[in-house]
């Protein structure tokens, strides 16, 4: 058991170097922790989103939480925008394509965008997915989105760029998302209000110098009309819903103190069936 607790603190790249048998033991431990958390009295209220958390292609339980949010508030055009999507096989919107959604991915890595273009030609050609390769800044993000998305109101915006997240999010004016998913720096628990100073060339190096605290997001996004309704169990992502849609549908109060989840990054080691593949996305049938 000592190994399991040691492994919970390892970055994912180092964790993957651990022998397969030990990784399997670690994943069993992670499943047990998640199961115990889902049954924690803190989440017993029927308005809590935590029990609905589930992984399809997200980093941890974001897919299930997103599905439940829209199960409660409904959808309009099923359009998403996500930036910081990696190689496309682990993010917050890939699972939505299987549910008839369409949208835009923006990724700064040329390597990752080449992978996606090579392996998802039919999906991109169908128009269900648009892809832009660019290094995102607060000066270019609005034009990048407006050049690819014609809708002014969309259902979902997801942000994960490991640094300037809030500054870039604040610069988005061309769309009005009904739901926001954004990364937060879980090291800084409420009531700490922390936001990394804007640096256009910032690159995350694996330390605590990134992003924004949950309390800062709660306060600033409330000014823009959003209510904090949940956080992922891993302490990675926070979920915000337009306040007029949130009403009595989600667990109150909509505060960082109520919804904060500490860093449990080891839970991201939980897999969802066999490894993700581009082939599955390319062969969705019938075409939705």
Overview of this protein structure:
With 288 residues, the protein is of the alpha/beta class. 33% of the residues lie in helices and 15% in strands. The chain has 13 helices and 7 strands. It has a 7-stranded mixed β-sheet, sandwiched between helices. Strand 1, helix 5 and strand 2 form a beta-alpha-beta unit.
Descriptors:
alpha/beta; 7 strands; 288 residues; 13 helices; 2 domains
A few lines on this structure:
Helix content is 33%, strand content 15%.
Distance between the termini: 45 Å
Helical stretch tally: 13
Q: Mind summarizing the main beta sheet?
A: 7 strands, mixed
Indicate the structural class: alpha/beta
Mean pLDDT: 90
Strand order within the widest beta sheet: 3-2-1-4-5-7-6
Q: What integer value in Å does the Rg equal?
A: 18 Å
Total DSSP E strands = 7
CATH-defined topology of the largest domain: Rossmann fold
Shape: globular
- Stretches with pLDDT under 50, minimum 5 residues: 1-9
Q: Domains counted in the coordinates: how many?
A: 2
> What is the H/E string?
HHHHEHEHHEHEHEHEEHHH
Q: DSSP strand (E) fraction?
A: 5-15%
């Amino acid at each position: 058991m000592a190994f399991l607790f040691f492994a919970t603190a390892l970055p994912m790249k180092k964790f993957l170097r651990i022998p397969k048998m030990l990784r399997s033991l670690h994943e069993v431990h992670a499943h047990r922790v998640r199961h115990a958390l889902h049954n924690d009295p803190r989440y017993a209220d029927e308005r809590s989103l935590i029990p609905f958390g589930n992984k399809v292609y997200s980093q941890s339980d974001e897919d299930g939480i997103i599905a439940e949010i829209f199960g409660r508030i409904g959808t309009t055009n099923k359009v998403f925008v996500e930036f910081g999507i990696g190689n496309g096989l682990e993010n917050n919107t890939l699972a939505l394509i299987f549910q008839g959604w369409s949208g835009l991915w923006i990724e700064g890595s040329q390597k990752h965008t080449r992978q996606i273009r090579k392996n998802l030609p039919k999906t991109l050609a169908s128009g269900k997915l648009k892809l832009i390769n660019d290094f995102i800044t607060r000066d270019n993000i609005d034009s990048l989105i407006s050049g690819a998305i014609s809708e002014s109101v969309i259902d979902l915006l997801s942000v994960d760029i490991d640094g300037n997240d809030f500054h870039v999010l604040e610069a988005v004016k061309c769309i009005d998302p009904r739901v926001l998913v954004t990364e937060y720096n879980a090291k800084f628990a409420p009531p700490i209000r922390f936001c990394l100073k804007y640096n256009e060339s910032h690159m995350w190096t694996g330390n605590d110098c990134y992003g924004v605290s949950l309390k800062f997001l709660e306060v600033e996004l409330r000014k823009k009309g959003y209510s904090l309704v949940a956080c992922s169990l891993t302490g990675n992502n926070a979920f915000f819903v337009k306040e007029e849609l949130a009403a009595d549908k989600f667990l109150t109060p909509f505060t960082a103190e109520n919804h904060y989840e500490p860093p449990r990054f080891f839970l991201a080691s939980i897999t969802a069936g066999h490894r993700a593949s581009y082939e599955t996305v390319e062969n969705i049938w019938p075409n939705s």
